[in-house]
Amino acid sequence: MSSVTYDQLRTLYRTLLVFATVGVVILAVGLVEFAYFERPGEGSGVKAHIVGVYQFDPDTKQPVGPDRSEFHRTEEFAAVVDWSSIPSNMIVDARWYNSFGSIEGQVGPAAPTELADKSVIPVEVPSGLHYVLPGRYTFVVERLEDGVPVEVLGRRFVVVERS
């Protein structure tokens, strides 16, 4: 084998080693992150009862109409949670996330008994805007431990149409 071919093979081999090392590091970081946020053995088996997602009347602060999963930009909406479906010894919160992962409304963290009077959780219209942004919204009820979400107890998806 000529020295030129040998040098080319050595360069390719070292490049592959660098890429393999980077890949292993990325995999290790992902596994550590997964273990941190999805702790093994942390599942409680509890399921939150999300009554529904309804159009929201900002004047009366009450839900209006039937349970829906699609809304227009001009409609405000809110989720209704039955906090009595969750044991009182847990710390929970409920959050609305928009398509970008930003929180667009929340209650908690607190014990479910403390949230009993906050069963209607509306999506907040971003400041400076008149309507909610179009896209997919996710409503999540989570169990927290030491301020970190460790379990999803309930989830609903809503689509806000552009027109």
Short summary:
The protein is an alpha+beta fold.
How does this model look, in words?
The protein is α+β, with helices and mostly antiparallel strands. The protein folds into two domains: 1-37; 49-161, Immunoglobulin-like (Sandwich). The protein has one helix and nine strands; from the N terminus they run αβββββββββ. The chain has one helix at 3-37; strands at 49-57, 62-64, 70-72, 77-82, 91-97, 103-110, 120-122, 135-145, 148-161. The strands form two sheets. A five-stranded mixed sheet has the order 3-9-8-5-6, with no helix packed on it. The chain has a four-stranded antiparallel sheet with strand order 2-1-4-7, with no helix packed on it. Strand 5 (91-97) and strand 6 form a beta hairpin. The longest helix has 35 residues, at 3-37.
Keywords:
163 residues; alpha+beta; five-stranded mixed β-sheet; 39% strand; elongated
Secondary structure blueprint with pairings:
Blueprint: H1 3-37, E1 49-57, E2 62-64, E3 70-72, E4 77-82, E5 91-97, E6 103-110, E7 120-122, E8 135-145, E9 148-161
Parallel strand pairs: 3-9
Antiparallel strand pairs: 1-2, 1-4, 4-7, 5-6, 5-8, 8-9
